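The data are quoted verbatim here:
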Amino acid sequence: MTTPVVTVSTGTPVKEIAALLREHRISGVPVVGDSGAVVGLVSEYDLLARPGQTAAEVMTAAVITVTEETDVEDVRHLLVERRIRRVPVLRGDRLAGIVSRGDVLAVLTTEWACTVCGQTARGPHPPQRCPRCHAGPDRFTLQEPPPGD
């Protein structure tokens, strides 16, 4: 998950949104309302395909979101099945972060190794227990990816 999230308001001009995307090297931004709730999303596609002068006029209003507790496999499934590039992460009704395809790839390639038995596990954090020897999370070390990966 990426934080802090670059966001825009419903009244943000399209030219300003395009500049933000370029400046931050991102392909989309959540649109937040006055209360701070996510009300839409503006992607590069929206800017190219939809006529309008403000975020409210070009945004996709039907935004798929997840919570901080959503499992990475569920997020991966959403990104693939819905053919989307990013999904806002909510804490209650407030934006907590955003997860992109790149974020999911990073998690899926993060590997932990048990220092007791050598068992490996993938994920953002070491497992609570080793499935082979039942060692605790303090017995796992982060494995560095081989050069070129």
